[in-house]
Amino acid sequence: MAPPLSRRTLLQSAILAAAVPGAGAAVASAASAATLPPPASWTLQPFALKDVALGSGVFAAKRKLMLDHARGYDVNRLLQVFRANAGLSTLGAVAPGGWEGLDGEANGNLRGHYTGHFLTMLAQAYASTGEQVFADRIATVVGALTEVRAALRTDPKMLAVTGKWGGALENVRGSYQYVDLPAAVLGGASAITLSVWVKPTHDANWGRVFDFGNNTTRYMYLAGRNASGVPRFAITTGGPGGEQGLNGTAALPLNQWSHLAVTISGTTGTLYVNGTAVATNTAMTLNPATLGTLTNNWLGRSNYASDPVFAGAFDEFNVWSRALTQAEITSLQTKEAKLSTPGLGDLASYWFQATSGGTFSDASGRGLTATLRRTWGGPSHPGFLAAYPETQFILLESMTGSDYTKVWAPYYTAHKILRGLLDAYLATDDARALDLASGMGDWMHSRLSVLPEATLQRMWGLFSSGEFGGIVEAIVDLYALTGKAEHLALARLFDLDSLIDACAANTDTLDGLHANQHIPIFTGLLRLYDATGETRYLTAAKNFWGMVVPHRMYGIGGTSTGEFWKARDVVAGTISATNAETCCAYNLLKLSRTLFFHEQTPAYMDYYERALLNQVLGSKQDTADAEKPLVTYFIGLTPGHVRDYTPKQGTTCCEGTGMESATKYQDSVYFKAADGSALYVNLYSPSTLTWAEKGVTVTQTTNYPAEQGTTLTFGGSSAAFGLKLRVPSWATAGFQVTVNGSAVSGTPVAGSYFTVSRTWQSGDVVRVTVPFRLRVEKALDDPSLQTLFYGPVNLVARNSSTSYLQFGLYANAALSGDLLPTLTPVSGTSLHYTLNGTEFAPFHEGTEDPTHAYWRRAEPRVVFGNSDSGVANPAKADGTTLLDEVWAAAPFASKAALVTRVRTVVDAWVAAGLLAQADGEKVVSTANAATYVA
Fold it and tell me: If both were cysteines, with which of 142, 189, 319, 612 could 347 make a disulfide (CB 3.0 to 4.6 Å apart)?
């Protein structure tokens, strides 16, 4: 194979390709139709969500709960952090909190991600249901983000609010804005009064009302709250240890106007709060004159970079070159400064009510115009869009170790926003959404394309800080819509070569890696393969999937413990309260279906059914809540674990992907061959497919998995194609297909697709029967630790014990090998059973019952057909018991066949010295006398 192109070479080639006549026209046509063209490398293609309508059943019931959340949650709360970052009015909305607010984990460094998830949910909800409410909500979000980007592209402008005397300047928390005053504002005065009205809106300590200084050594400040929560004034030429200060006696009330004033004259300094002198220092030796000319003269910002920007409103800031008297301070409480006894400040006077734009004129007569600024300056590119400053992206470029309190996966958050915008565009054809998405692509390319290769590799290898989610997949989709060469080049700038090369060589290096940081990388690599044809991307993705499934997979389809992978084939050894991060299942489903588009390996869709029907469905609580999505973060597999549907502080990544999962359950029920020659039925789920190109509808009627089969009814025009029905790998009890009541010839094979080819007519009915059997799956590293399945359904024991339960299953095993007869059905409740007084129920039921997904297999005595031989069940050194060896040969055509098998095994164990001859005869006798379920 030729060596891969460098990123710089790819960019040059892509630019040339974009210049080829006709290429741009094709892309423009695709974009104008708001459709994402399927790649030529896909031999299968998905149907749009709008083409597959869910019918009544467990999926529709779960989706309804999430749709209610999508309708009920105030999107202005999601937009709050974006509007605040741009210095816009937040319309009184309260940020969601948790990961989506400034007070959440790691200072809210991930804020904005949840809005992207929510936008994707709305897009999927609209595509699936056509309800206008979802389109309207999308338009609100896209419109607001358009305004946010426009505001970020310009210098900040005053946000006017009602002030003490008229208008006032509001500093929205999260805007990182401050007022920059000219250097001459203090005038070198030795005596001074500084007076200001403030309305704090947050109780953070050390937010500065004003700060005049050069650094953290020489400065003079007034903080609304010190470490004790009261106002503090200080002046120093020797840093914190040399501060001469004045401390208030009570906290300033939030959301109320308070007047603060400081006077210095000679050796006396006084702090006034609302006209009352609350602190006096008569031993002061410092004043503004001793500070000299200062570089930083700020309202709302501190010379200490770690201090918060003041959150609240300012009205009337005045500076006088003398110390006002108590009476003069008192007069400022009831009158505007211009009408008060002292009048306007002679050194500086700012009336915020008389100001528009981002500059503030000085009414003192000195002409000292002040300017509203951002602490971080502004975006490096007009396409920048985020709910926080560009700082995290900048810091990441120089980081050598991860610290999510400083930088928390900024490109991960960018991915969520970008994906949400793309989905909004594809669902509603809103050109603003595509313009925002394209701008983000342009901005990221402008940042990353100038970085050295070594810097990129270091960034993407950082845990958490360098995580970028599924951004590559989204960028390749963006490229498919825009045709911009820079967008394709951008996608390849995220290559993490050490990971790609190892997986392409089928070298398993996953031990110790953060699972969800890496899974979506491979879906992106598949899309890069689609766009570039570079086979190492495809090979790496296929090999990676095989390293996770089944080698790091739990029975429910999930993976990871404490968010990380451990050694290959260690399952029992990783059981904890923090298994199976829900995002991991979401991303493995995306990877599995995308792999299946390239190669129709049935194992991909077997996994899809497993994870979708168990972990993903079970991660959603069966409770209505307009305010919360009620989705798990971790699913603990420890004994007696109770699922937490309101994890951490809220608005987590898993709640975000959970919202998405619950609004696209139907996305992989059906696929079509790229040439139209076949229809794949991957999942048995009540639904109606509209295959517009064929003029055909297929209605699937079933109560699966409560029903062991499905019925497909054809409508519309006649059409010739192969109907490919998935035969699950667990379907070893027979798989039958009839068309219009007649059996279809052929032998379905478990773990494959069974094809029925004909010219389909309206009214044709296909009946698929998929008999379930009860079976166990053993932990790879401890065969005695097992989990129970009935067909595709993982059954969990509901029991409050926090120790592993012990169960035996052979007591009444059927001749077919089905273990179900050992359990007792719960009357009136499908898929519920009891064993030894413990109820087993489907994992997918979103309850808060304590559950045991894994338990210990214990078959202490040899029992057949509920008849106890009285003989202990012997075991070999590897743990295999006599009963295991007998039943491994199931199914048995007759009782006689079973007894023959028992005799063969007993004789072998007796000969090996593992079983006494007399006990062996008791075993054979018991097997012969027992009665069995067929």
Answer: 319
Rounded Cα distance between 235 and 213, Å, is 9
Tell me phi and psi for residue 869, to 5 degrees.
Answer: -75, -15
Token reading at 769: 């029967």
Tokens 């609350």 belong to: 278
Alpha-carbon distance of 464 to 283, in angstroms, equals 51
- Both structure tokens of 723: 């109907």
Tokens 């607001």 identify what position?
Answer: 144
Match 């020659």 to its residue by tokens: 677
Angle at which helix 515-532 crosses helix 582-598, to 10 degrees, equals: 20
Angstrom CA distances, 19 to 25, 104, 479, 483, 901, stand at 11, 47, 15, 10, 73
Instruction: Count Cα neighbours of 805 within 13 Å in the Cβ-side half-sphere.
Output: 25
639: cis peptide before it, omega within 30°? no
pLDDT given for residue 111 in this prediction: 97
Residue whose tokens read 């925002």: 436
Residue 352 in contact with residue 167, Cβ under 8 Å? yes
**pLDDT score for 6:** 37
Burial 465-480 (b: 16+ CB within 10 A, else e): bbbbbbbbbbbbbbbb
> Is the backbone of residue 766 left (phi > 0), alpha (psi -120 to 50) or beta?
beta
In this predicted structure, what is the pLDDT of residue 595? 98
In terms of Cα–Cα distance, which of 418, 524, 400, 511 is closest to 465? Answer: 400
**Cβ atoms 398, 115 nearer than 8 A:** no
Per-residue b/e over 226-236, b at no fewer than 16 CB within 10 Å? Answer: beeebbbbbbb
Residue 354 has pLDDT above 80, yes or no: no
Q: Which residue has the tokens 């010739």?
A: 720
What is the reported pTM? 0.94
Residue 117, Cβ density class (10 Å: 0-12 exposed, 13-18 middle, ≥19 buried): buried
Pairing of strands 192-200, 208-213: unpaired
Distance CA 646, CA 760 (A): 48
What is the edge-to-edge ordering of all strands in the sheet holding 370-374? 244-247, 232-236, 219-223, 208-213, 296-299, 177-180, 370-374, 359-360
Q: Which two tokens stand for residue 783?
A: 């065969």
Cβ(769)–Cβ(735) below 8 Å: yes
Beta bridge partners of 526: none
Alpha-carbon gap, residue 64 to 663, rounded angstroms: 9
Amino acid (1-letter code) at residue 898 = L
Residues in the chain: 934
Smallest CA-to-CA distance from 716 within 777, 763, 756, 774 is with: 763
Q: Is 365 exposed, middle or buried (0-12, 13-18, 19+ CB in 10 A)?
A: exposed
Calculate ∠ Cα 864-867-868, nearest 5°.
95
580 within 8 A of 644, measured Cβ to Cβ: no
Token pair of 399 as six digits: 């980081």
pLDDT(32) > 70: no
Separation of alpha carbons 700 and 713, rounded Å: 7
pLDDT above 50 (res 20): no
Q: Helices H, strands E: what count in the chain?
A: 24, 39
Element (H, E) at 171: strand 167-171
Q: Are 898 and 932 in contact (CB under 8 A)?
A: yes
Instruction: Give residues with Cβ within 8 angstroms of 48, minimum separation 6.
Output: 127
Torsion sign, CA atoms 187, 188, 191, 194: positive
Under a CB-based contact definition with an 8 Å cutoff, are residues 698 and 711 in contact?
no
Q: Residue 676's closest CA among 723, 608, 716?
A: 723
Cβ-count burial 196-215 (b if 16+ within 10 Å, e if not): bbbbbebebebbbbbbbbee
| Residue 251: Cβ within 10 Å count | 15
Return d(Cα 54, Cα 664) in angstroms, integer.
10
List the one residue out of 29, 31, 21 whose CA is nearest residue 487. Answer: 31
User: Which amino acid type is present at position 112?
Assistant: G
Degrees, nearest 5: CA angle 415-65-671 = 60
Calpha distance 258→140 (Å, rounded):
36
